[in-house]
Amino acid sequence: MHNPSATLLIIDDDDEVRASLAAYLDDSGFRVLQAASGPEGLELFDREHPDLVICDLRMPQMDGLELIRLVSERQADLPVIVVSGAGVMNDAVEALRLGAADYLIKPLEDLAMLEHSVRRALDRSRLRLENRRYREQLEEANRDLQASLNLLQEDQNAGRQVQMNMLPAAAWVTDDFHFAHQIIPSLYLSGDFVDYFRVDERRIVFYLADVSGHGASSAFVTVLLKFMTTRLLYESRRHGVLREFKPSEVLGHINRGLLNCRLGKHVTMLGGVIDQEHNRLHYCIGGHLPLPVLYRDGKAEYLQGRGLPVGLFQEAEYQDYELELPESFSLTLLSDGVLDLLPGATLKDKEAALPGLVEQAAGSLDGLRQVLGLAELAEMPDDIALLVLSRNLA
After folding, report:
1. Beta strand 384-391 with 177-184: parallel, antiparallel or unpaired?
2. What count of other Cβ atoms lies within 10 Å of the Cβ of residue 307?
3. What is residue 342's three-state secondary structure?
4. Domain spans of the chain, in order of start
């Protein structure tokens, strides 16, 4: 609806016509200003800033067309209604081309027609003004959004760089053990993480973690995991001798750390310690699926084990499992994002298919890349992490 107290400026050299129009529009609820010439009208316009101008075309000193040009220069969107006795088609066309909102012919037999034209022009003017404001607000919001996106991109780049720097070497060989991994994030930052490192001359530690959720908040937890495992190792070495520790103790330590941080995040994990002196693997499972897949003698099978997610239950306890390592083998750890790539309609079907795919891949990471088609992957709904450790694998 138009503003009922809108100010109208009538410019007409005919005193009787001008007074008649002003009286009618005043009775209709408008504030009405009057001017008898173009120069006088412009002076009033500059001083009073009306919402709409009504003018004649044929006036001394300055005609209506020139007046429309000058008004448009001052305020381009201000509506101007021409009320003229000069019913020349060229004048009407030129007035409308210059931006006039309407062109009415004198004498006006029904002044309600003028009121209707005024109200319609004011409504259109209001809509144009609102649209311009909306556009300006939208442009400002877009600028703010772009600035925020640029800042977010910088943060994402920095976060991604931190994650990449935390990851171990993509192909690491220590003695006769070979470690390789790949992480494919569903977003720019991944909530999946792997790590492996030598503890001392006889022990090697490795783990794969899958943080709940996606994006920056989940990626932050991977940084926290790295910090907690590194700190645990540092504190264990403080007295010069690294004590014996079990994978279940590490998961318990991480469980307490995540709960104390109150981040609302939990982790599923597979962690293990290779004891080279006794040729044994000690491992622990923290609510993770799929289970590790052991490949030897051309056959693949799941390792056994179970356990609660890490960082979810205060009273969670974790169990250690033990395995004598074959002379030639590989052990494949995967995050649950890989299940989206496996054949089968149900989770049970997908899990049943995985050992066969590891056999097709001959237990190697490069083979799994080919079997699972990792090079051709489009955007995935979940992060995917793979960690393969092997010894004497042909």
Report:
1. antiparallel
2. 21
3. coil
4. 7-134, 167-391
Q: Is 162 helix (H, G, I), strand (E, B) or coil?
A: helix
Query: Distance (Å, rounded) from C-alpha 354 to C-alpha 356?
Result: 5
Per-residue exposure over 339-372, b if at least 16 CB sit within 10 Å of its own CB, e if not: bebbeeeeeeebbeebbebbbebbbbbebbeebb
pLDDT of residue 1: 47
Q: From 303, 295, 307, select the one nearest 323 (Cα to Cα).
A: 303
Low-confidence ranges of the chain (pLDDT < 50): 1-2
* Neighbouring C-beta atoms of residue 59, cutoff 10 Å: 22
Task: Report phi then psi at 83, rounded to 5.
Answer: -120, 105
Instruction: Please identify, in words, the CATH class of the domain defined by 167-391.
Output: alpha beta
Rounded to an integer, what distance in angstroms lies between the CA atom of residue 193 and that of residue 222? 6
CATH number for domain 7-134, candidates 3.40.50.410, 3.40.50.2300, 3.40.50.1000, 3.40.50.10490: 3.40.50.2300
Quickly list H helices, the chain: 15-27, 38-48, 64-74, 89-97, 111-166, 215-236, 247-261, 347-360, 365-372
N- to C-terminal Cα separation, the chain:
82
pTM, full prediction: 0.65
Which tokens is 358 given? 């590891």
Backbone angles phi, psi at 266, to 5 degrees: -130, 170
Q: In the structure encoding, which two tokens stand for residue 117, read together?
A: 């034209």
Contact 68, 99 (CB under 8 A): yes
Amino acid (one-letter) located at 322: E
pLDDT tens figures, 308-348: 999 999 999 999 999 999 999 999 999 998 998 899 999 99
- Cα 333 from Cα 55, distance rounded (Å): 84
